[in-house]
Amino acid sequence: MSDNAFDTDYPHFMGSEIPQASPTEAFFHVLPVPYEKTVSYGGGTGLGPSAILQASWQLELWDGQSKPGECGIHTCEAIDCSQSAEEVIEAIADSTYNICKSGGMPVILGGEHTVTYGVMKGLRRAGFDDFGIVQVDAHADLRDAYEGDKLSHASVMKRGVDMGIPLLQLGIRAFCEEEAETRKEFGVYHYDADTLVAQNITELVLPENFPKKVFFTLDIDGMDPSVFPSTGTPVPGGLGWYQTLSLFESLCRQREVIGFDVVEFAPIEGFHAYDFAASLLTYKLMGTVLKHRG
């Protein structure tokens, strides 16, 4: 394994601590998706999955509360992102479907946020007809198209609500009038950063009618740049480390999480602390899921 986060090397998650579990034995299936085609400010998200996987070799098996790695982690082959956007999305959907049908939980490492559209399609194919999305993000991602592209990272949640998937947004602090109108049109629930962060809210209260099964999508820029400057579109005023974990735990207490992704991580050369933090964040989310699923 190379020490250079800018090498596209995809070792299996936490390979220094646990062996690669077979697809039938693993609970968590980590899917690297180094997709980066529509980023609109800084680049580097295509290098995120590799950096997270490499940094995971520095993690401890014990996450402070449990050993989620012992339930089995299988790292899938990275999605070939040299194809067209439509082909990449279909490949993500197929892989997500296969993970779910094997009884595993998809853990997607992006790549830009567009990858979540493929995951949503895959979940639907796997029979999850009634699930919601809980999104941590700096941006609403509800534009119908951005720069003429309906498959832009800035439009991924619009694709979701167009599919009829209920949406709850956390930590949003940068959106346009079109997105505000889309929220009203589709009844998008939201706790924006000016409330969530300003009041240091750590307990999430989901609407009673929100689906019982939830996919959690975490855009790294939803967290504050003081925690993760390593993203293409940083916005001040975001969630802190412990606030993010507390909100996710409160989600897991109330709903069944059927998968999650960590997207828009763009490693900064020479600053491996952020690679490690993104990897630890992924592992912490795994541990929280297991804690509340018994």
List keywords for this structure.
Arginase, Chain A; single chain; 294 residues; disordered N terminus; alpha/beta; 8 helices; eight-stranded parallel β-sheet; 8 strands
**Quaternary status:** single chain
Any low-confidence stretches, pLDDT <50, length ≥5?
1-5
Order of secondary-structure elements? EHEHEHEHEHEHEHEH
Mean pLDDT: 95
Percent strand equals 5-15%
For this structure, what is the CATH homologous superfamily?
Ureohydrolase domain
Number of strands: 8
CATH architectural designation: 3-Layer(aba) Sandwich
Number of helices: 8
- Domain unit count: 1
- Largest sheet composition: 8 strands, parallel
Question: Radius of gyration in whole Å, from Cα?
Answer: 17 Å
Shape type: globular
Query: Structural class of the secondary elements?
Result: alpha/beta
CATH topology: Arginase, Chain A
Give the distance, in angstroms, between the N- and C-terminal Cα atoms. Answer: 34 Å
Binned, the helix content reads 25-40%
Strand order, largest beta sheet: 2-1-3-8-7-4-5-6
CATH domain class name: Alpha Beta
What would you say this structure looks like, in words?
With 294 residues, the protein is an alpha/beta fold. The chain has a single domain, classed as Arginase, Chain A (3-Layer(aba) Sandwich), CATH 3.40.800. 32% of the residues lie in helices and 15% in strands. It contains eight helices and eight strands, in the order βαβαβαβαβαβαβαβα. α5 links the parallel β5 and β6. α1 crosses α8, α2 packs across α3 and α7 packs parallel to α8. The N terminus is likely disordered.
